[in-house]
């Protein structure tokens, strides 16, 4: 039986195969990288939107049960006090976060980043726990390259 010395791959064939495998690996790696980056961006946007919605709900609940609501446009602070005299402030902290500050407690972050605006307008008059009118709360978020505006109109306890 004779042995064929010409069987196997040549250096050129091995080089072409390795080159094709490298291109395939790089393409797959790039696709995975961009997929992961997009997924992380979407997760961040979803987290910020969820935090913004939770902040709005927290402020709405505080205003609904309030006996006194004040908005300080200069400092950007919404102050809410109930009948028992327990108060909480909602304010923009730093350049891009929103916190709540309760009496005697440390700040609690509601939205950690992306807050570009926090405003409140009120035509509510609250006298002796009786309110008439509405409190309009607006929270502007910058999420990635887009912006979201969350707003709510709340009537304090009547």
Structural commentary:
There is one protein chain. By secondary structure, the chain is an alpha+beta fold. It has 1 helix and 10 strands; from the N terminus they run αββββββββββ. The protein has a 5-stranded antiparallel sheet with strand order 1-2-3-4-5, covered by helices on one side. Strand 4 and strand 5 form a beta hairpin. The longest helix is centred in the N-terminal third of the chain and has 54 residues, at 11-64. The chain is rod-shaped and about 105 Å long.
CA-atom Rg in angstroms: 29 Å
**Lateral arrangement of strands in the main beta sheet:** 1-2-3-4-5
Strand % is 35-45%
Tally of contiguous helical segments: 1
Count of β-strands: 10
Low-confidence stretches are 126-130
Topology:
Blueprint: H1 11-64, E1 68-72, E2 77-81, E3 87-93, E4 97-102, E5 108-111, E6 115-122, E7 125-127, E8 130-132, E9 135-143, E10 146-154
Antiparallel strand pairs: 1-2, 2-3, 3-4, 4-5, 6-9, 7-8, 9-10
Which features characterize this protein?
158 residues; alpha+beta; five-stranded antiparallel sheet; three-stranded antiparallel sheet; 1 helix; 34% helix; rod-shaped
At a glance:
By secondary structure, the protein is an alpha+beta fold. The chain is 34% helix and 37% strand.
């Amino acid at each position: 039986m004779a042995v064929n010395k010409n069987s196997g791959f040549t250096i050129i064939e091995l080089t072409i195969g390795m080159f094709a495998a490298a291109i395939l690996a790089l393409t797959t790696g790039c696709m995975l990288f961009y997929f992961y980056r997009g997924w992380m961006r979407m997760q961040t946007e979803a987290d910020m939107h969820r935090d913004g919605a939770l902040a709005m709900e927290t402020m709405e609940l505080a205003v609904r049960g309030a006996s006194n609501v004040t908005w300080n446009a200069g400092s950007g602070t919404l102050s809410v006090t109930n009948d028992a005299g327990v108060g909480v402030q909602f304010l923009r902290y730093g350049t891009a976060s929103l916190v709540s500050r309760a009496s005697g407690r440390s700040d609690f972050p509601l939205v950690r980043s992306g807050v570009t605006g926090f405003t409140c307008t009120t035509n509510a008059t609250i006298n002796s726990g009786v309110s008439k009118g509405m409190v309009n709360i607006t929270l502007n978020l910058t999420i990635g390259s887009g912006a979201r505006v969350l707003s709510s109109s709340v009537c304090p306890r009547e």
